[in-house]
Amino acid sequence: MCERVVTAPVFDEIIHAPNRLQICAMLSAVESAEFSVLRETLAVSDSVLSKHVKVLQTEGYVEVTKTSGKAARSTWIALTAEGRQALAGHLAELHRLSDLANVDGG
């Protein structure tokens, strides 16, 4: 039987920025994603995405791998185990805050 690990709710200012939150959320669903796919999905420039990836990389939340082939070079971004844990904690905190706000009036 597989045990589910519960992550404590922790607000993470690094992840909270909208683009970084979207990057982490997208990466959490895959092993890794190509830089260009993230850029197109977020509809941002190379420089904007690079800036956000650099912040996440400095924090240890993502790994960046550059590959080169005959046709072109690619940059791949992957969420690290630390990044997955930080995202889970941040999302848990957002859920906790949402429950406190009782926005649905129920």
Report on this model:
The chain has helices at residues 13-16, 18-28, 35-42, 46-59, 81-101, and strands at residues 33-34, 62-68, 73-79. The protein is α+β, with helices and mostly antiparallel strands. The protein has one domain (13-93): Arc Repressor Mutant, subunit A (Orthogonal Bundle). It has a 3-stranded antiparallel beta sheet. The mean pLDDT is 91. This is Transcriptional regulator. Residues 20-97 form the Winged helix DNA-binding domain.
Short overview:
The chain is an alpha+beta fold. The protein has helices at residues 13-16, 18-28, 35-42, 46-59, 81-101, and strands spanning 33-34, 62-68, 73-79. It has a single domain (13-93), classed as Winged helix-like DNA-binding domain superfamily/Winged helix DNA-binding domain (Arc Repressor Mutant, subunit A).
Strand and helix map with partners:
Blueprint: H1 13-16, H2 18-28, E1 33-34, H3 35-42, H4 46-59, E2 62-68, E3 73-79, H5 81-101
Antiparallel strand pairs: 1-3, 2-3
